[in-house]
Amino acid sequence: MKKILLLVVFISSSIITAQNDGWHINTKDNSDYTGIAIANGRIGMLTSSKPLQIQHVVLNNVYDVDPNLKVSQILHGMNFGNLDMYIDGEKITEDNISNWQQTMDMKNAAFTTEFNYQDKAKVSCTVYALRNLQYTGYIDISIEATKEIDVKVTGKILTPKEYQTPKNTFQILKDLETTMPILQSVANSPFGKHLVSTSGTFIWHKINSSREDQRPELTHTIISNYENTLSFDYKIKKNENLDFAWTGAQCTTKNFSDPKSESERMVIFNLLNAKEVLLAQHKALWNELWQGDIIIEGDLQSQQDVRLALYHLYAFGRGDSNLSIAPMGLSLQTPYNGHIFWDTELWMFPPLLVLNQDIARSLVNYRSDRLEPAKKRAINYGYQGAMFPWESDDTGEEATPPFALTGPFEHHITADIGIAFWNYFRVIEDKNWLVEKGYPLMKEVADFWVSRVTPNDDGSYSINNVVGANEFAPNVNDNAFTNGAAITALAFATKAAEEVGIEPNPKWKEVSEKIKILKLKDGTTKEHENYKGEIIKQADVNLLSFPLNIVSNKESILKDLKYYEPKLSKEGPAMGKSIFSVLYARQGDVSNAYRLFKESYVPNQQAPFGALSEVATSNFSYFATGAGGMLQSVLFGFGGLEFTDNGIIQKNPILPKEWKSLTIKGVGKDKKTFRIDK
């Protein structure tokens, strides 16, 4: 254990160069680089260490179907975020610049790269995924000439080579005296499901006081079918600046009947609005998001880590979308193809429900919008009610690759969704929503579990042949978390029926009270029927203590904690230990709670910003599920918050010795503030 703690301290101190506040993460070292996502809930752009570059663009809820894998994949879109810059004829690269540094501004969702080129120029480039214009990105650039220089800048639309029938154009649209230059690329997605259109243009800010009306001449060049470019040349005098932006908009037939025209309109909207107006709207929307915030005094590193986690949940979601959040959010297409799992309902949803009910509503609405496919799936497998897919995409049908046993057998997802729905109602107290969307889904979930259980001779019920949260043990009987989640979903459905004035099915209560929870000889909760002490992939049994509250007395909680913590695989996902942290905090053991809080994410941080990977041995980031877990450690462990039928309450908060205070702002629909001091 001492070796693990030493490793945690080393990793934490070596990854991040912090600015002296809790809102910015700064680095001057790009020797080991994992990017983070600049996103607005619709598009995500993954940052790069290379000057004026981003790695790729991810399009939320836009799926293509790979006939080889026979499953859908979220689209990597056309990359409109890369520019080439030449100064006095030499191309800017990572090899010929100095004083490189990058800063993540979490408060304003802005990512800035700065560098010097010889003794001739200082360059600053800030990337935004505009929150107010959700299909657009905005890259703001300033070149300060320390000597007179000739500058050439090329904006590009790079179409992935897997795309079909690309078409590249440039046109100057005119309306009266207004001219609007538009670079555009249109292509079919790799497997032909969608037409994708991306438009881009330069936006000139005030060039300088004496040459305000001058605009550089634009040159269009098609480098290849997959690279469409627009360039300008400009001479900057010594001690003068050139300030401009490059903006792109990307639309698809998933969201628009005419994505080509709509992407043009969006770019024109950005072109003909002042930078100050666009960015003020973007920042105002992020300021609203940050009304739900976590403030840690006395531990700057923890503050930054927690803020980065919360930033990513906000960046990957939208309150106006009715969309969900994939495990990697909008940072990557792989792993998991951008599908939606239990990661949303069990790990990301609770922190968002505490701090941002708008995004939380989109997450539950995503599921209610896909209730009908879930009902058909139940029928297809011989059950009643609704059987939600383990991996979900835009269709609501099962999207798990056929070779994976999780698709046919990991059924706890259906209970997880029902539990999330009741918690949403507990917090928001919207009876109309419960009548129209909440209860109809919860009823189908309950009916599924009544049809899914197997009666035993002693009057109890078992749930047989499942893959549980511990996926190392496939096709087992009476998995602890599956059974506990079903018990809870059935009990919540009964409450929901009573709330809307409907007589609940008495079978729900009967089955809920008689589903087996197995025990070892010493009283420890048993992982499944045939469990014999094997290593487990992630928290399973301990979820019965939190969040399910089925194992609720202190002696049993501690017995389960001490038994299963050593059983957690070192190759398991990041969020597992966060549950142990919450439980230790709730038992008053702040030392173990803080240890496990740090162990739940620090080994998974990637240089230089602390982006989370799913496991410590990979660098696929950003793992939004892990972010949800570590935030739950803070909110429900140290913060003592709890979902109840009376809303969000606080019980027995506890503060790590490393922290001076913890403030949780914007809690629940009344936006309450909870503060814990030493």
TrEMBL record:
Residue intervals of the Glycoside hydrolase family 65 N-terminal domain: 36-153
InterPro entries associated with the record: 6-hairpin_glycosidase_sf, 6hp_glycosidase-like_sf, GH65_N, Glyco_hydro_65_M, Glyco_hydro_65_N
Signal peptide: 1-18
Recorded GO MF terms: hydrolase activity
Pfam families listed in its UniProt record: Glyco_hydro_65m, Glyco_hydro_65N
Ranges for domain Glycoside hydrolase family 65 central catalytic: 307-517, 526-600
Keywords, sorted A to Z: Hydrolase, Signal
PANTHER family: GLYCOSYL HYDROLASE-RELATED (PTHR11051), PROTEIN-GLUCOSYLGALACTOSYLHYDROXYLYSINE GLUCOSIDASE (PTHR11051:SF8)
Official protein name in the record: Glycoside hydrolase family 65 protein
Species whose genome carries this gene: Sediminicola arcticus
Taxonomic placement: Bacteria, Pseudomonadati, Bacteroidota, Flavobacteriia, Flavobacteriales
